[in-house]
Specification:
- This protein has 375 residues and is an alpha/beta fold.
- It is 30% helix and 19% strand.
- It has 10 helices and 17 strands.
- The strands form 4 sheets. Strands 9-10-13-14-15-16-17 form a 7-stranded mixed beta sheet.
- Helix 5 links the parallel strand 14 and strand 15.
- Helix 9 packs parallel to helix 10.
- The longest helix has 18 residues.
- The structure holds iron/sulfur cluster (SF4).
Length: 375
């Protein structure tokens, strides 16, 4: 039995969501565009918010979702029906700009190849594709390209002004560059961070020299993500082979440096969780290593995206998520660093195993994203 919205979120991550005809028809009537753009494995689901402000990115296109007992229905309002329980939910549409084109002298592409908004944040991707090929990711299947700065700046402005889904912060993400493109990418970080009128976070594509962390701070970047993803080094060699060559020590030292520069509450690191990736015990060691360094661990539920090499594998189980969540809370508390599970932005929790706890560590939709937590 699913009793509350916390359990509903974990259920949807592990079992997916089916869409009824009534919900599909209502969605088409209320919002121009599809239910999801399905542009990236970990954000490919349908975004919804519950009446107690839990944001959920519910998998709909993975194989397991077809067998889900959870059904999105519309009858005067949207709700999820599951095992005779009903949960009122508010759908979060795709941005209105989803069908607009960016044009310059050399290029005509959809704006969504430059950036995509989910809930309140636009994720821009200066590098299309990726030189690495992590098994849970589908970015490497896209052709490698460097995106024009003008287009990246334009899509941020368009996203801020979007009538359906206005963005209030930016994440610079995207694929890992070839070594010869690193200085180009650093220049993009600088240009975006110094010109954006909304806060900018960077998901760092790590490389040898740590000095760029200080530069990000000088350019006004609000927060950074340095993702470990797989903590066990043997599993990492299998799942994220190129990234694993940089070693866990390299990442942990980089994270420590970033916390010194940005402070607690402004550095996070994502761990992809689920038995297909690594076991619970090993993920929890990762949570501990991060929390002890003052870095927010982010529990990212593994979903076997249909365009990834792991598309036939099991998603993370409900029981593993429940254990990981509650044990991680304890680990963070015991670390004494004041850190909690990330992300701090409540709408950005949609594809993570995190929940608001009514403290000022977490930032709701109408609060300042640059505020530091009181530790
Ligand atoms: S480095 Fe990042 S973008 Fe590239 S394949 Fe791995 S997860 Fe995907």
């Amino acid at each position: 039995m699913v009793l509350n919205t916390t359990e509903l979120k974990l259920y949807l991550f592990s079992r997916g969501l089916k869409i009824s005809e009534s919900a599909n028809n209502a969605w088409q009537e209320f919002f121009p565009g599809p239910l999801t753009l399905g542009e990236y494995a970990s954000t490919s689901g349908v975004c919804i918010r519950t009446s107690d402000d839990i944001y959920i990115n519910a998998p709909v296109s993975e194989y397991f979702a077809t067998k889900s007992e959870a059904l999105l229905v519309y009858e005067d309002q949207f709700f999820i029906e599951i095992r005779r329980e009903r949960f009122i939910v508010f759908p979060i549409p795709v941005p209105k700009y989803h069908d607009q084109l960016y044009k310059d002298q050399n290029l005509v592409i959809p704006y969504t190849e430059l950036g995509v908004t989910h809930t309140d944040r636009i994720r821009i991707q200066p590098i299309g594709g990726c030189v690495w090929d992590c098994l849970f990711c589908d970015s490497w299947t896209t052709n490698y390209s460097k995106k024009p700065l003008q287009g990246l700046q334009e899509v941020i402005e368009i996203a801020i002004n979007d009538q359906l889904l206005p963005a209030r912060h930016v994440l610079i993400s995207g694929g890992t560059p070839y070594p010869e493109d690193i200085s180009w990418l650093e220049n993009i970080y600088m240009k975006i961070a110094t010109s954006s009128r909304i806060p900018v976070d960077v998901m760092v594509a790590a490389w040898g020299d740590y000095s760029f962390i200080s530069h990000l701070k000088e350019w006004g970047v609000n927060a950074v993500s340095i993702n470990i993803e797989v903590f066990n080094e043997e599993r990492a060699k299998k799942i994220i082979p190129q990234k694993a060559e940089l070693t866990r020590k390299y990442y942990l030292d980089l994270i420590e440096k970033a916390v010194n520069v940005f402070g607690i509450g402004s550095v996070q690191s994502l761990l992809v969780v689920g038995e297909t990736i690594e076991n619970v015990k090993s993920t929890l060691l990762g949570v501990e290593a991060l929390a002890n360094r003052g870095c927010m661990p982010i529990l990212s539920p593994f979903r076997p995206g249909p365009k990834t090499k792991l598309k036939d594998k099991n998603p993370v189980s409900y029981d593993d998520m429940q254990r990981l969540y509650f044990e991680s809370l304890k680990i963070c508390e015991n670390s004494g660093s004041g850190v909690k599970l990330g992300p701090r932005c409540i709408p950005c929790m949609h594809n993570t195993i995190t929940f608001p706890d009514n403290t000022d560590f977490y930032i709701s939709l109408n609060q300042d994203l640059t505020q530091k937590p009181k530790l």
